[in-house]
Design a protein that fits this description.
Distance between the termini: 55 Å
Shape: globular
Structural class: alpha/beta
Order of helices and strands: EHHHEEHEEEHHHHHHHHHEE
Radius of gyration: 24 Å
Strand order of the largest sheet: 1-2-3-4-6-5
Largest sheet: 6 strands, mixed
C-alpha cells in the first residue's frame, strides 16, 4: 500500500516498568487514553497484558497491534480495508474524519466497536483480532463508516442517534457492501432479520438489533435507484438543531421525492428474487406463516397497517391443481 510503513517497536512493555517509559514514546499511541497516562499509572491492566508493539500507518490511519497476539497479515488486511473505505466514502461526498486509530485486540469479545466521540485529535476503533482477515476487514469498514456518520452529523443528531439504530446500522452494513462486497454480513443479517418489513418504517426505531442491521436490504435498493440519498440524509442531519424522532423518514421523503414508489419498488425487487443480491439472499423470514388450504380462502390477512409496511405469504394447495392467487392493492 503506497505510503504505508511497518515500524519496528521503539520499546517493548516487557523491557521496562511504566514509570520508565518516556512521554514521547507513549505519545506514539496518543488517543488511547490508557496509554497516554502510562507515566502516571504505576500498574495498568493493559501494561500487564501487553501493549501494542507494532503499527502500520500513513498520515491519517494507524493500525496498532501486538505481534504476539495477532499477525501482520491481519493488520495489513485491516489497513487495506480502511484505506479503501477512506477513498470510497470521500469520493461519494462524505466529509472524511481526520486521524483514525484502529487497535487489533485478540481479547476483545466483540467484532468491532468505534468510539462515537473524537478523543484528543483522533477517532478510535477496536477490532476483535480473533476474526479471520476477511471478517476483520469488513468489521473495520463497518466501524469506520460509523465514524464517518458521526463526523457528518450535528451534535443534536448525534444525541438522537440511539433512537434510530436502523439508520446507523443499516447504512454501516451498506458501507461494508461498497468496500468488501464478498462480506457475509449483509446476507447473514437479512437472513435473520428480514421480517423488519413487517413494521411500518416510521416505527423502525423499535426494530430489534438484528432487524436494524437487516435494513441494509432497503438501503441497498435505495442507493441503487437514488444514488447519493444516504449522503443527503446525513447532510440533512448536519443541519439538525434539535432532535426529532421522525426526522429520518422525513429526510428520506424529501431526498427521494417521496418514498412511496421507492418502497414499492424495493418490496417488489426483494420478493421477486430475480436480481442480485436479493436473488441469493435468504428472505424467508420476511414471509408470514405458510398457509395450506384445500378450498377457496378469500382473506389471507386483515390488518390495519401503517405506511410502508409489507405482508407476504406463501400459499400451497394440499391436493389438486395449482392454486391461482389474486392480490388486490386496495390501500
Amino acid at each position: 500500500y503506497a505510503g504505508a510503513t511497518t515500524l519496528a517497536p521503539e520499546w517493548h512493555p516487557s523491557a521496562a516498568q511504566p514509570a520508565e517509559v518516556a512521554a514521547t514514546s507513549a505519545s506514539l499511541f496518543s488517543g488511547f487514553d490508557i496509554f497516554a497516562k502510562l507515566n502516571s499509572i504505576g500498574k495498568s491492566v493493559r501494561w500487564q497484558l501487553g501493549l501494542p508493539n507494532r503499527r502500520i500507518m500513513d498520515a491519517t490511519l494507524h493500525v496498532v497491534y501486538d505481534i504476539d497476539k495477532t499477525t501482520e497479515e491481519k493488520a495489513f488486511a485491516v489497513y487495506g480495508a480502511l484505506t479503501q473505505a477512506r477513498t470510497r466514502f470521500k469520493n461519494l461526498g462524505f466529509a472524511s474524519p481526520g486521524w483514525v486509530i484502529a487497535y487489533l485486540d485478540r481479547d476483545f469479545a466483540q467484532e468491532g466497536r468505534s468510539d462515537s466521540v473524537r478523543r484528543l485529535l483522533n477517532w478510535q476503533i477496536t477490532l476483535g483480532a480473533w476474526q479471520d482477515k476477511d471478517d476483520l476487514s469488513s468489521a473495520a469498514v463497518h466501524e469506520y463508516f460509523h465514524i464517518v456518520q458521526y463526523h457528518n452529523m450535528s451534535y443534536a443528531a448525534w444525541v438522537d442517534k440511539l433512537l434510530n439504530p436502523w439508520v446507523m446500522e443499516g447504512t454501516a452494513v451498506w458501507a461494508e457492501m461498497q468496500v468488501t462486497p464478498d462480506s457475509n454480513s449483509a446476507p447473514d443479517f437479512v437472513r435473520r432479520g428480514a421480517d423488519f418489513v413487517h413494521t411500518g418504517m416510521r416505527n423502525w426505531g423499535s426494530l430489534s438489533e438484528t432487524q436494524a442491521y437487516a435494513t441494509v436490504a432497503f438501503f441497498h435498493y435505495m442507493e441503487a435507484e437514488k444514488p447519493g440519498t444516504i449522503l443527503a440524509l446525513f447532510q440533512t442531519w448536519q443541519r439538525i438543531a434539535s432532535p426529532s424522532y421522525a426526522y429520518p423518514v422525513d429526510a428520506l421523503e424529501a431526498a427521494t421525492g417521496g418514498l412511496g414508489p421507492l418502497y414499492t419498488g424495493f418490496v417488489q425487487e426483494m420478493f421477486a428474487k430475480q436480481n442480485e443480491p436479493y436473488k441469493s439472499w435468504d428472505t424467508r423470514k420476511a414471509y408470514g406463516q405458510p398457509v395450506t388450504f384445500d378450498q377457496a380462502v378469500e382473506i389471507l390477512w386483515n390488518e390495519n397497517l401503517p405506511p410502508y409496511t409489507t405482508r407476504a405469504v406463501t400459499v400451497t394447495a394440499a391436493a389438486g391443481p395449482a392454486v391461482g392467487i389474486l392480490f388486490t392493492d386496495f390501500n
